[in-house]
Amino acid sequence: MLWKIPGPQRVKHFIWVIIKKRLLTNSERVRRGIAQDATCHLCGHIKEDTLHVLRDCPFAREIWHNIIPANHLGSFFFEWLFSNLQFFSTNKLGDSSWACLFWDHSLAHMEES
């Protein structure tokens, strides 16, 4: 059903990765037996899962707060998803992949450490 929704393939793929719990977080690496530490290496939280990476990590929150006006934070995800899948919106995120945003931000903070 996701694949039939009109919209950018990369957005649909990213949503699919999240729905299928395939985002390679540290807790997922531990579950797969390819790592022993589920801790978030950016903030030290004990379990880096999908929600932590996308929403709860202070570094992720900082990104969201820099991109989204404070009065839209509560409803942003659904509005963003709808506009990207239905209308190819040119909002502040544009066509950027969330993964690229988090990766760039993570690397910047790792280099500062």
Automatic annotation (TrEMBL):
Pfam families: zf-RVT. It comes from the Eukaryota. Residues 1-64 form the Reverse transcriptase zinc-binding domain. This is Non-LTR retrotransposon transposase. It comes from Gossypium australe. The lineage of its organism: Eukaryota, Viridiplantae, Streptophyta, Embryophyta, Tracheophyta.
